[in-house]
Specification:
By secondary structure, this protein is of the alpha/beta class. It contains eight helices and ten strands.
């Protein structure tokens, strides 16, 4: 303990961002939680930029910040382009006023479908491309190998829990994947309506975050054909008599540890 205090006094432990900001800790689940000691993204770097910075949604767990830095370097190294980061979380996490039910504990991030550099003065303007046709069942001509690689490189990161894309994009990615060994990465990529202008990356709970709620595993599938069939099932009409009046949803109570942050 004496050595620890001496190191602090000497400034030897203040050289890392993690110590300077405190250890970040996601609490609760992705749809109902908060984050302690969140870390902030830079707005514009060599490899990534933050879209709509005036919204102040560029805070996250330290693992998220490191993921974006690592991922964007890999995207650049592979000649794909620059990463445009959408919403992560607010400084303390919790519910956002608009746009998402998730993004509450600093472990979700949207990656916009846009690969070019933007003048920092224009980052609050919309730039993302829509990659799905109006009928939402097929991708359009803008979806190409670079966007396939943009999503797949994220899926290959070991910290990524799952990725949400439009069902049409998941179908197209299955068609483009010839190597069956890539199934393990396609399996992380889950179909979800919306997500025509961006894809949504969700990281695993950090090992030290004991109050971070883990998600249930993705249902097992063993082949690319099964992955495609699952994505196509999103376009099927619901079974007859299956649409019942849904009860009105109520907001769940915040985890106890989040109540204090919610008042800030």
């Amino acid at each position: 303990m004496k050595l620890f205090k001496l190191l602090i006094a000497a400034g030897m432990l203040c050289s890392t961002g993690a110590f300077a900001h405190g250890v970040s800790e996601p609490v609760g689940n992705y749809n109902n939680g908060c984050i302690f000691n969140s870390h902030s993204l830079q707005i514009s770097t060599e490899h990534y930029q933050v879209a709509h910075p005036k919204k102040m949604r560029y805070f996250g767990d330290e693992s998220m910040i490191r993921f974006i830095e690592r991922y964007s370097r890999t995207v650049h190294k592979n000649g794909i382009g620059s990463v445009l980061v959408g919403d992560v979380s607010t400084k303390y996490g919790g519910r956002l006023n608009t746009g998402h039910a998730s993004h509450q504990n600093g472990l979700d991030v949207d990656i916009e479908f846009y690969l070019d550099r933007i003048n920092p003065r224009d980052l609050d303007k919309p730039h993302a491309n829509i990659l799905v046709n109006k009928g939402k069942q097929t991708t359009n001509s803008l979806f190409n190998r670079k966007y396939y690689d943009l999503i797949m490189l994220a899926a290959k990161d070991p910290l990524v829990e799952r990725i949400f894309v439009s069902p049409a994009i998941k179908v197209k990615m299955c068609d483009m994947t010839r190597d069956e060994s890539m199934h393990k990465y396609l399996h992380k990529i889950r179909p979800w309506f919306g997500h025509t202008e961006h894809f949504h990356v969700r990281l695993k709970c950090p090992s030290h975050a004991y109050d971070c709620e883990r998600q249930d595993p993705i249902p097992e599938m063993f082949t690319i054909a099964e992955e495609k069939e699952d994505a196509l099932s999103w376009f099927l009409p619901p079974p007859e008599n299956s649409v019942a009046a849904a009860p009105k949803k109520t907001k769940p109570a915040l985890p106890m540890r989040c109540e204090r942050l919610a008042r800030k």
